[in-house]
Amino acid sequence: MNISQLLQRSAQVFGDRPAVLAGAQLLHDYRQLTARVVALAGHLRGSCGVRPGERVAIFSANCPEYLEALHAIHWCGAVSVPVNYKLHARELAHVLADSGARVLCVSAALQADALAAGAEAALLQVLGDAAWQRAAQGQPLAMQERTPDDLASLFYTSGTTGRPKGVMQTHRNLLAMTMAYFTDVDDVHPDDAMVYAAPMSHGAGLYNYAHMLRGARHVVPASGGFDPAELVRLAADVGRLSLFAAPTMVHRLVEHVRATRGDGSGFKTIVYGGGPMYVDDLRRAMDTMGQKFVQIYGQGECPMTITALAREHLADTAHPCWERRIASVGVAHACVEVRVADADDRPVPTGELGEVLVRGDTVMAGYWNNAEASAQTLRGGWLHTGDVGSLDEHGFLTLRDRSKDVIISGGSNIYPREVEEVLLLHPRVREVAVVGQRDADWGEVVVAFLVAEGGEVPDAELDAELDTLCLDHIARFKRPKAYRWVPALPKNSYGKVLKTELRACL
Q: Does a structural domain hold residue 228?
């Protein structure tokens, strides 16, 4: 099955329903959207030579054409490679080379970055330009058949080595994820609207499939991103908005509504995930906006579907375990099994800490061209998440730590070793350890602890040089917000840096 059958079905059954909106302005109904997708798929096949199974990357900020590109790629049987548009050109170059992307769909503002990453100008398809609009009126292509276990998408997620790995998501994975939305997150009605305030290359974009299936509306804000005031206006003008947001976005939205005494009644559902939601912030959010919240916990390796904390659990304040439950990430999605295991992969008793393991139809097929990492992560038939948590007697999972030391800032994952390796390129840096510091706006920010060569006392000029070094090698959002120079890093008897001690200094 091809995941784009969901779009085809809605075009047949709900053709006249509004499909895509730019802000509050209607652009296409489902019949028109599908006609454009089918023609663009024909263009990818006929003009670009894309064959089933080949990879097509999308490097773009949020825009209405993003949905067209994504579904055209699937429709022609190709594999989508959604790329974080904030990546540095060197990081983009790795994704393009590793995936072997035949074509890159890019927004006009990012063409220069794509060319700097080594993309061939002849293979660029610029979303929304004149050539794109002509292609959207071109010859249609019949949907290409795919099996459930054929690859649908490559999602690149950084690993602890700092080297991004391509998560292989199949059509089965995406379909199971879509069905799990209805069973564990929310039902979708035709007059609902999914608003893409968070990047469409990540979790927000994955929720398009559930809304496509039900013939609901898809709203891309005029800003192309997250702006609390804009979202409140859209909620009033469009109505029944649902969105996926990082906890930091929820915090900013709630504070805006409180500060302006805004009307949040136009929001239907706010799904949060991608980082820790602190209990006090959650209470404040529910007090301000009501019972509109659902939490999900997932990874690229099991997209959006490890556990969910439903709105009925959040609303059940009379339950004796309510305080504990709202600090959890909920219970296993209906399509997966979740267990907590020890170092030998044996289940641990209720309440004890261990690594979170998952298996089910949403778990990835493996890592692209990386059999060793695939075998290690999927050993024994279970996805090893690298997260540490505990299960209570009712099946609620509470995360205690992230064993991979990932920093989640504004909903984006930042892996310390990647930043550390860049900082160590500077000749005046002898040692470095990167940790996350809690931040009210971003959830966490990056802080680097450094030891200088020769015991020198660094100055502000060196901090500026490190900033420049980071900007030359990694995305801006991964750059440390603070540099802490110390005489030595705390270490255990094995020479391992004790990051828990560093975090205690923040």
A: no
Residues 386 and 450 both lie in one domain: no
Q: Examine the domain organization and report whether 97 and 157 are in the same domain.
A: yes
For 105, the 3-state DSSP assignment is: strand
- Reported for 397-402, long-range contacts at CB under 8 A and 24+ positions apart, including other chains, are 397/297, 397/306, 397/307, 397/328, 397/329, 397/330, 397/331, 397/332, 397/338, 397/340, 397/356, 398/324, 398/327, 398/328, 398/329, 399/276, 399/297, 399/329, 399/356, 400/353
Q: Strand 25-29's sheet: what is its strand order? A: 25-29, 18-22, 217-220, 193-195, 241-245, 267-272, 293-299, 302-309, 331-332
Residue after which a domain boundary falls, among 138, 171, 204: 171
- Tens of pLDDT along 369-424? 999 999 999 999 999 999 989 999 999 999 876 666 778 898 888 878 789 989 99
Q: How far is CA 2 from CA 143, 151, 164, 336, 491, in A?
A: 8, 10, 27, 22, 51
Q: Are residue 423 and residue 491 in the same domain, yes or no?
A: yes
How many domains would you assign to the chain? 3
Model confidence at 492, pLDDT cuts 50, 70, 90, reads low
Together in a domain, 383 and 487: no
Q: Token pair of 325, please?
A: 């439950």
Does 319 reside within a domain?
A: no
Quick one: 54 and 130 in the same domain? yes
- How far is it between the farthest Cα atoms of the chain? 72
Residue 381 sits in the same domain as residue 412: no
Phi, psi of 371 (to 5 degrees): -65, -35
The answer on pLDDT for 210 being more than 80 is yes
Global pTM reads 0.87
- What amino acid is encoded at 494 in this protein? Y
Can you give the CATH number for the domain in which 484 is found?
3.30.300.30
Question: How many other β-carbons are positioned within 10 Å of the β-carbon of residue 106?
Answer: 26
Residue 324 tokens read as 């504990």
How far apart CA 238 and CA 197 sit, in angstroms, is: 14
Sequence-distant (6+) residues with CB within 8 A of 401 are: 387, 388
